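look at this one:
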Amino acid sequence: MIARTVNYLAASSPRLRRLIWHHAYEHLNRLFARTDWHFLSYGYVSPDGAPIPLALDAEDEPDRPFVQLYHHVARSAGENALVGRDVLEVSSGRGGGAAFMAKYMGSRLVIGMDRAEHAVRYSVSRHRRTNLAYCAGDAEALPFADARFDVVVNIESSHCYGSMVTFLREVRRVLRPGGAFGWADVRDTHERAALDAAFREAALPPELTEDITANVLASLDQTNGRKMAVMRRAVPRPLIPLMLQFAGVPGSNIYEEFARGTKQYLHYACRKA
């Protein structure tokens, strides 16, 4: 219901959409400040239950479904595309994805950037590596020099932005020639044509497009128990129904829309010419 209301308002006011989502995520990060919940994305699991070959340390194993989404998106740039590279995650949330790329994918430097200052503070306090940093910034006005990064990643965040084209142009600006962009997010099925047009207008035509909705649904099923346990500990009882919708648990609006096919979870891989 929140997403529907925000998207309706955004049709006439992209600035209002940005404002609403910004305050929503700031509040969410305050609620979860004392939890070990490092990811806000829905995750990625093989629909048939087959294991995805990815070795994780024991401390990271509980986050496997969420890590697998980052692994899938980052690997679309090439098997070892992040090795020795400078990587930016736009809208890095609670920092788990950037920390995974810094720890497991051989990156020279990973910077996680988010507009929510509470999320940045949490990330800095929880994820510490010599090749990892976090900062505050706006996805539609990236605070970095031209051609600064080899790889840019953006997971499940762009639906909050005022202008997809503006964001994509900023991604292209900060990418080095030949640099890769991995994107994944939710869209209503009828929005697909406008989304593809935005990528073309920003001169970032995808080399790969795929619908990973089935993988996301499998992850929502697998992670439901853990999400419920975290909510019972961290969320005031009156807010739990709202948070269940946000989290996409089985029976929520977005889960049912995924199941019916009226909403898709998409993954695009692009390269700057």
Summary: Strands lie at 86-90, 109-114, 132-136, 149-155, 175-188, 206-211, 263-271. Residues 5-9 have pLDDT under 50 and may be disordered. The CA atoms of residues 2 and 148 lie 35 Å apart. The two ends are 39 Å apart (CA to CA).
